[in-house]
Design a protein that fits this description.
275 residues; alpha+beta; 6-stranded mixed sheet; globular; DNA-binding; ExoIII-like
Length: 275
DNA sequence: ATGACATGTCGTACATGA
């Protein structure tokens, strides 16, 4: 089973690119971010015509997340993160699909830093960490997929020293990501490509894609049960080179039906985090 | 250090993004 995440940067403006990618790459389940469309303007029919059912949480102009599936019903379990009833951004949607509980997320960008937007990013991250702990505690096969707006390490940025003051690479943001992973999540792409320069975003400026001046900010995190089923994780890099494309590329994992590897022993820090 | 480019909006400039 192939599960992908893709920040489309406008689901309607990007519809031809999205549909072409769905046909060519054939993911079974997809998390989309940055729909930039109100609830009633999601292109449900075009997506359904390709064999996908969908749930989505739209918002006028900004944000917006969706989950698509061509492998069975989508059982929505929540939209919006708990912990702040005043947070009206459409940034989180969660569903059980084909035996996997999937949280699709679009973490706040946080720039400029310092400022209220950066504070919001860190608060949102804290709420995600709290909720993620509950998900892990369930023992179910769980995945968190989306645009985390964080480069976890130096290896994930084309030029780390240029990004130190940016909200996407700030020590506080990286620390929050590390805290999340410390609960016991597996960063699928990094785990199967250790030490490799591998990016998921290239900005539109200065020929960034051609120069491979990229960032790795779109992540697929697997709970221990799912990590045992991980067989592949890749970036559909070519999509970033298409006409009228998003500044992000799709990222996906292939999961086997059964465990493929022996579970590694939990680290002491993980045991502590789960208590 | 700046700005390059792209999105959507009751546009024709602005807010937002990363």
């Amino acid at each position: 089973m192939k599960i992908a995440t893709y920040n489309v940067n406008g689901v309607n403006g990007r519809l031809p690119v999205l549909l072409r990618w769905l046909e060519e790459s054939g993911p079974d389940i997809v998390c989309l971010q940055e729909l930039k469309a109100p609830q009633e303007k999601f292109p449900e029919k075009a997506i359904r015509d390709l064999g996908y059912e969908a749930i989505w949480h739209g918002q006028k102009s900004w944000n917006g997340v969706a989950i698509l599936s061509r492998v069975g019903e989508i059982h929505e379990t929540r939209r919006g993160l708990p912990g702040d009833p005043d947070d009206l951004h459409s940034r989180y949607i969660e569903a059980a699909v084909a035996g996997v509980l999937i949280g699709g997320l679009y973490l706040p960008n946080g720039n400029p830093k310092p400022g209220s937007k950066f504070d919001y990013k860190l608060r949102w991250f804290d709420r995600l960490i709290d909720h993620a702990a509950e998900l892990l505690g369930s023992g179910l096969p769980v995945m968190l997929a989306g645009d985390f707006n964080v480069m976890p390490t130096d290896l994930d940025v084309y030029k780390p020293e240029r990004w130190l003051d940016d909200a996407l690479f700030a020590p506080e943001a990286r620390a929050a990501y590390a805290r999340l992973l410390g609960q016991g999540w597996t960063d699928a792409l990094r785990t199967l490509h250790p030490g490799e320069k591998i990016y998921t975003f290239w900005d539109y400026f200065r020929n960034a894609y051609a120069r491979n001046a990229g960032l790795r900010i779109d992540h697929l995190l697997l709970s221990p049960v799912l990590a045992d089923r991980l067989v592949a994780a890749e970036v559909d890099r070519d999509v970033r080179g298409w006409e009228k494309t998003s500044d992000h590329a799709p990222v996906w994992v292939e999961l086997a039906d059964k465990p493929q590897r022996r579970r590694r022993p939990a680290a002491a820090s993980e045991v502590g985090a789960s208590l």
